[in-house]
Fold:
Amino acid sequence: MQCSCGIALNLSLFRSHDDQPLKSCPKCSMQQGRHVFYPETLFGWRQLKGQSQLQSWCPACRSKRTPEQPATARCG
Structure:
């Protein structure tokens, strides 16, 4: 499934808003039909193959809850 921006919704995207780094949550994006961005600091880090990587899904999606924080930005 693609966003109106032409990029698949299941991919994480990065952008900034008011000089704040943002990241999209693929699960929220799939549910809303467009990329949904939250502050990058919200996502947290994990170890994967010995390297630190930013979590893909937002904390709410990882714990199967509804996001408590409203999206900072959306595509479209």
About this structure: Residues 26-32 form the longest helix (7 residues). The chain has one domain: 14-74. Residues 14-74 form one domain.
